[in-house]
Specification:
Strand content: 15-25%
CATH architecture: 3-Layer(aba) Sandwich
CATH topology: Rossmann fold
CATH class: Alpha Beta
Number of strands: 7
Helix content: 40-55%
CATH superfamily: Vaccinia Virus protein VP39
Number of helices: 7
Largest sheet: 7 strands, mixed
Radius of gyration: 17 Å
Number of domains: 1
Length: 207
């Protein structure tokens, strides 16, 4: 029990001393993850005024904040997460488990047939610490996000997803390349170096 307490204390100290945590607090973002999306935006210009955006795995709302700022008053942001999220002005939030058909149907009802310009997904499963269990769970969420993107994206639309490198990664990349004109891999500076996470940015959806 003492070891766990020390480990938790060390994690909290690293978190509080983290450059991006401190920046998020100063600049009013809900999470350090906002800087991952901002760096992707800087490199790939995926967000523009007037777009319709869907944010999967949105809580606590860092990516939705960035998206809403950049799409402006003419754009719309729809956010979904299993966890509760404090309201954000101009963001339509739905709480539910994306793996459940009923929740997906509710999200589709919210979209009401709007063609979507961009689907962003920062979803990740609750981890057990067992790679053979966690990796398939993570890849399953990526595949669900991609299936959803294929249903709602307009021709030429963009899909961005967090992926953990490991079993299933290469097949998923091939699948993305076949459905989009261009795909790049990004490892934002705000992504912790030891993390296996990368972000795949797929543009030019082939409907």
């Amino acid at each position: 029990m003492a070891r766990r307490s020390k480990s938790s204390h060390r994690w909290m100290q690293r978190h509080l001393n983290d450059e991006y945590v401190q920046r998020a607090q100063r600049e009013g973002y809900r999470s350090r993850a906002a800087y991952k999306l901002l760096e992707i935006q800087e490199k790939d210009h995926i967000l523009r005024p007037g777009q319709v955006v869907v944010d999967l795995g949105a809580a606590p709302g860092g990516w939705s904040q960035v998206a809403k700022q950049l799409v402006g008053s003419r754009g719309e942001v729809f956010a979904l997460d299993l966890l509760e999220m404090e309201p954000l002005p101009g963001v339509n939030f739905l709480q539910g488990d994306f793996r459940e058909q009923m929740v997906l149907d509710r999200l589709m009802d919210l979209l009401a047939g709007r063609p979507v310009d961009l689907v962003i997904s920062d979803m990740a499963p609750n981890t057990s610490g067992v790679l053979a269990v966690d990796q398939p769970r993570a890849m399953y969420l990526c595949e669900l996000a991609l299936d959803f993107a294929r249903q709602v994206l307009r021709p030429g639309g963009t899909f961005v997803t967090k992926v953990f490198q490991g079993e299933g990664f290469d097949d998923f990349v091939r699948d993305l390349r076949s459905g989009f004109q261009r795909m790049v891999t990004r490892k934002p500076r705000a992504s912790r170096p030891r993390s296996r996470e990368v972000y795949l940015v797929a543009t030019g959806f082939k409907s």
